Amino acid sequence: MSINILDFEKPIAEVTEKIEALKLAASDNPELFPQIDKLKSEQAALTKKIYSKLSTWQKVQVARHPNRPHTLDFIERIFDEFVELHGDRQFADDASLVGGIAKLEGMPVMIIGHEKGRDTDEKVKRNFGMPHPEGYRKAKRLMKLAERFNMPVITFIDTAGAFPGMEGEERGQSEAIARNLAVMSSLKTKILVVVSGEGGSGGALAIGVGDHIAILEYGTFSVASPEACASIVWRESEKAQEAAEAMKVGAHDLKKIGIVDEIIIEPIGGAHQDYDMVSANIKSSLLINIAELSKFSLEELLQRRYQRLLKIGA
C-alpha cells in the first residue's frame, strides 16, 4: 500500500488494489472487465462517502498531502509566460517562496507563493516551504513592483509557517512578516489570495492580506498549527486533533466566521487527484474576482480592504 495513503483512505486503497490486480489478469481474460467497472463505481461511491464526512483533523491531513499541487504546479496550468524574479536585494534569494510576472488570459499579474518541493533534494532546497526573512522581503519587493505597474497581485499560501530557526530570528523574521502585513494593507493595487494547502502561522499571514481571499475545499488557515496549539494549551501535541476542531481551521468554518470569502471546490478525493480540474477552478475564481474588483476605484478598493479587516472577529 502506498506510503501516501492517509489512514481514513485505507478502505479506498483496498478497492484500488483489487482493481489493479484485476487489470493485470484482464489482459488474458477480457471477461473480467465488467467486474473492474463495477469496482470502479464502488471506489467512486466510497471516496465520495468518506470525503463528505471528513473531520477537521482529516482535512488538515489532506491539506498536508505530499502529492498536493503546489504554487509551481498552478503557475504551469493557469498562467502564461511566467518569468520568475529572484532576491530581496538585501541578503539572498529564498527558494521557499517563488514569485514573478505572468499573464492571466493576456493580463499581466504578479504571482507570489510558497513552494514546498517534491523529492528530497528539492524539499531541502525549498526548506519545505518555510520561508526565511529574505523570502518575505522578496515578496514585499515584488508587491511594490506590481503596485508601480498597476498589476494585480495573486498569492498562493501553502506553508507550515515561517522558518523558526535561529537564522530567521537573526535576520528579523518578525519584522519582515509585520512589514508585509503593513504593505499589503495599503498596497495600491488589487490583491487576490488563494489558500491552496496548509496556511500556517505568520508564515501564511505574511502574504495573506487581500481584497479577496479564497481557500481550496480541503485547505486550512490558522494562526498556529494544531500541534503548536495543543502544546501551548494542553502541553500535549498529541491533542492536535482536538485543537484543530477548536481552532476552526477548515474552509467551511473559516467562511462562516468571515476569514475567507470563497471556497473553491476540489476534485473528490482532494486536489492531488486532478491538478487540471482544481487549476481550472482556481483560474475561474481569479478571473471572476479580478473583474469584480476592477469595478472599484483605488480609494474604494483600499477602504473596502480596510473594512474587511475590521470585520474579522466582530
List the keywords:
single chain, 314 residues, 2-enoyl-CoA Hydratase, Chain A, domain 1, 49% helix
Structure explained in plain terms:
By secondary structure, the protein is an alpha/beta fold. The protein folds into 2 domains: 47 residues; 252 residues, Alpha-Beta Complex (2-enoyl-CoA Hydratase, Chain A, domain 1), CATH 3.90.226.10. Helices cover 49% and strands 16% of the residues. The chain is built from 14 helices and 8 strands. Strands 1, 2, 3, 4, 5, 6, 7 and 8 form an 8-stranded mixed beta sheet that branches. The chain is globular and about 65 Å long. The N and C termini lie far apart (47 Å). The model has no long low-confidence stretch (mean pLDDT 93).
Provide the domain count: 2
CATH architectural designation of the largest domain = Alpha-Beta Complex
Helix content: 40-55%
- Separate helix tally: 14
Order of helices and strands: HHHHEEEHHEHHEHEEHHHEHH
Query: Tell me, what is the CATH class of the largest domain?
Result: Alpha Beta
Structural class, please?
alpha/beta
Q: Strand content of the residues, in percent? A: 15-25%
Mean pLDDT: 93
CATH level-3 fold name of the largest domain: 2-enoyl-CoA Hydratase, Chain A, domain 1
Distance between the termini: 47 Å
Give me the Rg, rounded. 21 Å
Number of strands: 8
CATH superfamily of the largest domain: 2-enoyl-CoA Hydratase, Chain A, domain 1
**What ranges have pLDDT less than 50 throughout 5 or more consecutive residues?**
none
In brief:
With 314 residues, the protein is an alpha/beta fold. The chain has helices at 10-26, 33-51, 56-63, 71-78, 120-125, 133-148, 166-170, 173-186, 201-205, 226-233, 240-247, 251-256, 275-293, 298-311; strands at 80-84, 97-104, 107-114, 153-159, 191-200, 212-216, 220-222, 262-264.
